[in-house]
Amino acid sequence: xxxxDLQLNYAVLYPTFSLVxxxxxxxxxxxxxxxxxxxxxxALPWVALAGVIAAGAITAWQWGQPEATFQGMATxxxxxxxxxxxxxxxxxxxxxxxxxxxxxxxRQLGEYYTLLLLATAGMMMMGTATDLITVFLALEIFSLALxxxxxxxxxxxxxxxxxxxxxxLGAFASSFFVYGAALIYGAAGSTHYAQIGETLAAxxxxxxxxxxxxxxxxxxxxxxxxxxxxxxxxxxxxxGAPTPVTAFMSVGTKAAxxxxxxxxxxxxxxxxxxxxxxxxxILAVLxxxxxxxxxxxxxxxxxxLAYSSIAHxxxxxxxxxxxxxxxxxAALFYLFTYAFMNIGAFAIVIALERAQENDALQNRAxxxxxxxxxxxxxxxxxxFSLSGIPPxxxxxxxxxxxxxxxxxxxxWLAVIGxxxxxxxxxxxxxxxxxxxxxxxSADSAAERSEWGGLRLGVLVAALFTILIGISPALxxxxxxxxxxx
Length: 485
Description:
Elements: H1 14-31, H2 39-62, E1 69-70, E2 74-75, H3 78-98, H4 109-128, H5 132-150, H6 157-188, H7 193-201, H8 207-225, H9 234-240, H10 243-268, H11 273-295, H12 301-320, H13 325-352, H14 368-371, H15 373-387, H16 393-407, H17 411-437, H18 452-470, H19 473-476
Antiparallel strand pairs: 1-2
Helix pairs in contact: 1-2, 1-4, 2-3, 2-4, 3-4, 3-10, 3-13, 3-18, 4-5, 4-10, 5-6, 5-10, 6-8, 6-9, 7-10, 8-10, 9-10, 9-12, 10-12, 10-13, 11-12, 11-17, 12-13, 12-16, 12-17, 13-15, 13-16, 13-18, 15-17, 15-18, 16-17, 16-18
């Protein structure tokens, strides 16, 4: 059995350490704030944003450095750094959306930003992990933080319900993951990805334990990324959680869980692709189809985006089914584009919400283009991009995952993905039509003047949704996975 590099290369964990340090700093700053002295509390989102920027700067510095490992449990290879970038983008946009929103629903600002940074750290560790034990620890770190953040609005029964559902089903998913990891350990004698892969390649594994283990791991990851039929928590949690939390976890959770899944499949069990490839393909078809057709029936914008998120998880699986490095690269690029267009869409939902409402029906978008042209234009950009209309970022995200499927010999799966994209076009354009062609009603939203951070978040998200689409080649090189080949 090959040996594991047991060096203590702390540089691997520098981005994560920086987030933890800033989380502790937020708790210290929060101690000096009170109703009589609001200044320190008003600085908390900017301290959190500084922590995200610091982690991003360290990630950028490591990009050109040699790869290193931390006792064989984690690595800072290109794949891990790309995942860091995606999660940090989601965290930064989530903080901007939270600046004016969170004080209206909770006084626990220090706790909120501390948990958000800790969740971000856990998500980043998911892509860094090269061992199933590390993945489980990272999974629990960010999951526990999100359970609490989902129920932050304690006076709202829907928020409390969301937190409880997320906790119960999340614990259920974790148990599947642990049992699957135990079976894989029994099959290969290790929880380290490279050792598992080499043991299985030498035909020394116990296949009777391996395949049930892979199946249970897939179930655990499927809960986290909302694959059908393990998606039942998603619409209720997305609708009940505070909208900035929903926006952040809709991207961060998906990116982290997909990153860990990709590394497991392409490093630990690539020789079993014939089996797990078909499992991913079946899950992709079910997830895309149910997600899109369920979204057609929604009147709540948050539930519509929740089912849309489910459908997008299916699109990503299309690229992963062939088990190729190109599919992994396409999935990372897709998640990067998804961060901007999906969080941008949730930002507009925040602007459409009434105070304490925590959701917005689609009729609140009616006619807002006349009184709110810039926000309406931004929402149109996000809707067009999510539906895959060129030349926006979402088009190239789908193009690359479908191309990976075709190049890997799964043309039929790419065709089903394109047909599902056509279905999704209807409910995305329905929102745009309401904004531009329907007359304002008593339920239509009115522009609010206090959402400075929100406007900045919308501007950044819309700008990158356009720029990535105009010049995708500038970004694709960042996400070359280096896995599986």
